[in-house]
Protein 1
Amino acid sequence: QISVFANKIVSESERVFYAGAPSKRTLFVYIPEGVQAIEIKDKSLIINYTGRPGITAVKEFTANVNLTGSVPTSPGLKRLTITAQDDKTQISSS
């Protein structure tokens, strides 16, 4: 489930960026239980999560474009807006 929502964010960010500013896209992603933190850094979406009891892991998903903004970590269905800017895409919850 983590890979599904992270890959959706990355692919939509790339699609919006290449369409050019001020392109915007709204998407819905499901954040599963166990997600502890989501960090957006340069071209990466880094997710810290707890899998099986006591096992914490980190997954990094890399985009071809610069990313900025934030993604909520609470579990459930989330509505995100991805907006193209001149040199990056902005990700925000809406």
Protein 2
Amino acid sequence: EGNLKKIEDLRIFQIAVEIGEDVWQIVSLWDDKFAKWSIGKQWVDCADGISATMREGYYRNQKGDLRKFFRYALASAAEAEHWLQKAYNRNLVNAQQYRQLNQKFQHLIPQTINFINKIQ
């Protein structure tokens, strides 16, 4: 489709990429091997999966695929938000890190839902 924007131009994709990078930066600095192996690995996987899944679905030819993959990305975002809460509860992220990432999720999740609802 000639008028398809590049995915990098979509704000929800930009936020998703930022979340993946933020989570990587946080987890990579953890000294606790158990925390890295348990929470950290799952958190990085789902945080990186948000933008990766968006990219995969965005360039498919059928709108049903686009909707399906963005729903998968939305589920990964919800999971990553859950791991943020767990990491904060277990003192693996500080209050500033929690606030900054939580704010990104508060933008990403509703905007992704809105994007999914606009796909016809």
Protein 3
Amino acid sequence: MIRVLFVCLGNICRSPLAEAVFRHKVQQLHLDHQIEADSAGTGGWHIGNPPHQGTRKILKQNQISFEGIVARQVSSKDLEDFDYIIAMDASNIENLKKVTK
């Protein structure tokens, strides 16, 4: 199983949007038994919350499910468990480097 993690600051806008779209594409290609996606935030302000209202609106407009996506904070274990970690911007990369320390 290939595991992909999308990371942004709060895990309610960009990374859950990327996770949902990526999952949708993986399912369309019938690769969901080979590729798994998740998302997390470098900050913990929104832990347990669903994606932002604007994110949900975009996903609904495009008929993409966001079922089961709730905000969580990235952990050092994630850095070990995921094959690919995709940060949404340069500051997220810098924050991810701090998780490894």
